[in-house]
Structure formats: C-alpha cells, structure tokens
Amino acid sequence: MKKTILSLALLMSLTATAQQKLWTLEDCIRYAIENNITLKQSQLKKQTATETRKQSQAALLPSLSAATNQSVGYRPWTDQGSITVTNGQVDTKTEKTYYNGNYSVSAQWTVWNGNQNHNQVKLNRVLENQAELSAQATANTIQERIAQLYVQILYQTEAVLVNRQSVETSKKNEERGQQMLEVGKMSKADVAQLTAQRATDEYTLTESQAQLDKYKLQLKQQLELTNEDFDIAIPVTTDEAALREIPPMSTVYEAALLQRPEIKSAELEKSSGDLQLKMAKAQWLPTLSMTGGVSTSTNSLNDNTWGAQMKTNFNSQLGASLSIPIYDQRRARTAVNKALITQQEALLKLQEQQKKLYSDVETYWLDAMTNQQKFRTALLNVASEQASYDLLQEQFQLGLKNIVELMTGKDKLLKAQQNMLQSKYTTILNQQLLKFYQGEKMRIEN
Predict the structure, then answer these.
(1) CB atoms closer than 10 angstroms to residue 136
(2) What are the E-state strand segments in 27-168?
(3) What's the predicted TM-score (pTM) here?
(4) Cα–Cα distance between 138 and 343 in angstroms, integer?
(5) Could you report the per-residue pLDDT of 141-155, keeping only the tens digit for each?
(6) What Cα–Cα distance (Å) separates residue 268 from each residue in 10, 122, 139, 340?
(7) What is the pLDDT of residues 261-289, one digit of tens each?
(8) What is the DSSP letter of 247?
C-alpha cells in the first residue's frame, strides 16, 4: 500500500512538471563534461602540453634562417669619384652617398648532446599524458559529486513524500480527536496534543522540502546552470536495486588500479623522474653541433652590376663545434641529485595514491555492505511498525488507546521509514561508485 501511494505521488509530481526539462543523471553528467569550467581549464592545459611536445620534436631538426641588411652611407668630404667623357667633354662625378646590401642564409643543428633533446621529447610526451589524465581525474571528480547530489535528491524526494503522508495522517487524527471531543470521549488537552503533533509534522515537512530545494540548488550550481527552472527526472528505484550483490572489495580495487587516472598519472611521474635523471647525467657529456651558411653583398660604389656583385661576393661556409664540459660549477651534479630526489618523490606519490585509492574503495565498499544490511533490517522494521501503527489507529478510534500511545507509534513508524530510505539510497549510491571505480558508467539502475 505504501509503495502504491509513493508511486502515485511521484507520478503526480512528474505530471505537474511535464512542461519543464527533467534532467536524468546521464543528462547531468553529459552537460557537466561538456560545459564545466574547471574541466575546460584542465583540457586547455593538456593542449598546452601538446604544443610543448610538438615544439621539442621540431627542435630535433636543424634551424634555418635568412637575413638581410640594407644600409646607406654618406661621405661629405670625399674627392674620389668617376670620370666620363661624352662628345669630347670630360665629366667628373663624386658619389658622396652610397648603399650597402648584405644577404645571408644560415643553419644550425645540434647533432648530439648526450640525447638530452630526444629525452626532452619523451619527457614532454609524459607531461602531455599526465595533463590528459589530470583532465580525466577532474571529470571523474565531477561525476562522483553529481551522482552524490543526484542520489541525495532522490532520497530527499521520497523523504518529503513520507513526511507529507505523516502530515495527512496527523490531520486525520486531529479531525478524529475533534469528533471524539464533541461526544465527550477525549479531553481538550489530548486534542491539543494532536494539534501540536500536526503542527510539528507540518514543520518537519517544510524543513524536508527546504532541504530538497537546497540539494537541487547545489546540483544546479555544480552544473553551472544560470536558468531559474531546474528539476531532475525521478527514476523508479526498486528495493531489488539496493539488494543486488556487491562485488568483493579486492576485485574493485584491482580493477581501479588498472584504470583510475590518478594511478596512471603517478606511474608516469616515475617515468618522468627516470627521464630527468638521464638528462641530468647527459650534462657531463660533450655536445656536437654543426653550422653552415651562405652569404653575399652589394655596394653602390662598385662598378659591377648588382647581379655581378651578388655572384662575385658569394661566400659559403660549413663548420662543426665540439663542447666538452670540464668544470660547470657543480650544475650537472646538482641536476643529477635533484633528479634522484624526484625519483624518490615519484615512488612515494605512487604509494600515496594507491593507499588513497584503497581507502576510498574500502570506504565505499563498507558503506555499501553496512547499509545493505541496514536496509534488509529496515524493510522488516517498517512492515512491523506499519502494522503496529495501523492497529493503534483502529484502537485509538475505538477509544482503546490513548493519545500518547498513538503518537509514540506514529513516531516509530516515521523513524523506521526514514531509516529505510536512507539505507536504501546510501546503498545504491555506494554500489554505483564501486562500479564507477571499476570503469563502468555512472547510472541509476531499477
């Protein structure tokens, strides 16, 4: 009977909001993954890391550049010039202003530097993967928070319905008390207690509704929505969903170790430390570089044509340089020691992440197991308290039970219902979190 009333109330609630978009858990997660600002920032960091990796790859190739320099000179007191004879007339021309042009193309290539450049590419690829894993970890955190709020809303929605039923029952008891007062079967003090109970239940309902609105607001803020209207779709959650078998904790933990991004990132941290150590040791090795280039120049004072000057003044060169470190003021030794420290830090970080993961899985698993046992007990308790309260109501209406016994029975029933709902939805939440840690998608099952 209770389940039928709750289902009807849920159906009426859905009908009343038919014109409004109702967000499923999948809708909330999809929207957050696409629009969350923090996640977008993490994704931009990954793009930055990608660009850094591409630049280090391009640095393996020779660099090539071209340059030109054009200048104007002025010699005001020169007496040198050119003499020309035209039709028997001698002309003397002095060039005080002249133009210079220099043109060059040069290349530089680091042939070998102890593989520092190649290891830098590998290191940047590791950092790129870490940035991507960081974005995945952010997305996982967002999904977990959304699931927690979503299930909390489901629990609070049913809690509101239970409290509303409690108010209706209190009103009927109050009306029955007024009738019994009129025929002299109940005192005014007892009727006042029934009225106070009804008022208390109404206050509890108001508090429960306010808490539901608060959870919806928190979910809306988590999604970073700005529109005023927001509500979620209420799936039909059966008792069987909370009673499904919970996987062994070791199974969940082993699966989580293989696919959780924070573990993968910590493992890459160790690879990063290894590469940094290789690059630090390479500072003790020689560096071989090659340079080459071609150049030419022109001058307006030269009698040759521009093209002839470009050809005559053409010059090319090719060179190699070998740099051998002898004393670097301990820079290489310091870099090696720091890299060794980084390796140790990476190992500690990996152990820390593994312990944290184990702690999280253990907490979710224990909460799921404990609340599932509570739920089984609560189902029996609710059935017992409901039968007891129904009998109390019949006896109260016949004048066989007093007001204190009726109110005590009602309080026990309400507490049993609240305990059942809390254990049910806590079990469902932790079951989904365990599946999520195993790599499955977050969803509410019937």
Answers:
(1) 19
(2) 63-74, 81-86, 89-94, 97-112
(3) 0.83
(4) 25
(5) 999 999 999 999 999
(6) 49, 11, 19, 16
(7) 999 999 999 999 999 999 999 999 999 99
(8) P
